[in-house]
């Protein structure tokens, strides 16, 4: 039987929209409740995010953007330039933790700890570009995990299949 990893973290719920917004902590609460109610949780291998690392994030994102994002959160800005992408004071740290979750899932697969991994992380991370957050995404978790595998595990080619209601733009725009 395939071993499936499940990455999540309670702090992912601390990125809270300051106004009515479709991307809310309830997404992860619903996933977790479903896994517990159905008993599926018993067959998953729990995985924790590794310590968030700016070095891993900086392989994908412009340092000026990271400083701008951190400052905007600290200052209490409600959104980025892209107004569909909200912030609160926790968001920068939680965004690093979300990227670290994607890294942990990818690493567990590459090292053979699990056969595949499901990363229930947020803020989401497939639209953010190199120097711009957008589409509810602050950092590009997907691209950060892919670059991590290339840098640390010598993986050369990685296929990112981005399935959403619209064309995925982030990994391409961030690499
Ligand atoms: Zn999307």
Describe the structure concisely:
Helix 4 (91-110) packs across helix 5 (141-153). This protein has six helices and three strands, in the order βαβαααβαα. With 175 residues, the chain is mainly alpha-helical.
Q: What's the overall geometry?
A: globular
Structural class: mainly alpha
Highest CATH level, the class: Alpha Beta
Order of helices and strands: EHEHHHEHH
**How many strand elements?**
3
In the sheet with the most strands, the strands line up as 2-1-3
Bound ligands: zinc ion
What fraction strand? Answer: 5-15%
Main sheet, how many strands, which sense, barrel? 3 strands, parallel
Task: Look at the structure and give the mean pLDDT.
Answer: 93
Number of domains: 1
CATH topology assignment = Arginase, Chain A
Helix content: 25-40%
Cα-atom radius of gyration = 16 Å
Secondary structure elements and their pairing?
Layout: E1 4-7, H1 26-37, E2 44-47, H2 54-58, H3 63-75, H4 91-110, E3 116-119, H5 141-153, H6 170-173
């Amino acid at each position: 039987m395939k071993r499936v990893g499940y990455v999540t973290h309670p702090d992912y719920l601390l990125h809270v929209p300051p106004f009515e917004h479709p991307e809310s902590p309830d997404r992860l609460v619903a996933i977790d409740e479903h896994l517990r109610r159905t008993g599926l949780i018993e067959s998953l291998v729990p995985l924790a995010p590794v310590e968030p690392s700016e070095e891993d994030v900086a392989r994908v994102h412009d340092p000026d953007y990271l400083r701008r994002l951190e400052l905007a959160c600290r200052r209490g800005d409600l959104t980025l330039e892209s107004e569909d992408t909200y912030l609160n004071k926790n968001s920068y740290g939680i965004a690093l933790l979300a990227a670290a979750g994607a890294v942990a899932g990818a690493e567990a697969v590459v090292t053979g700890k699990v056969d595949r991994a499901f990363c229930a992380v947020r803020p989401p991370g497939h639209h953010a570009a190199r120097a711009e957050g957008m589409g509810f995404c602050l950092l590009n978790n997907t691209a950060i995990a892919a670059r991590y595998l290339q840098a640390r595990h010598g993986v050369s080619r990685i296929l990112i299949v981005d399935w959403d209601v619209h064309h995925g733009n982030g990994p391409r725009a961030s690499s």
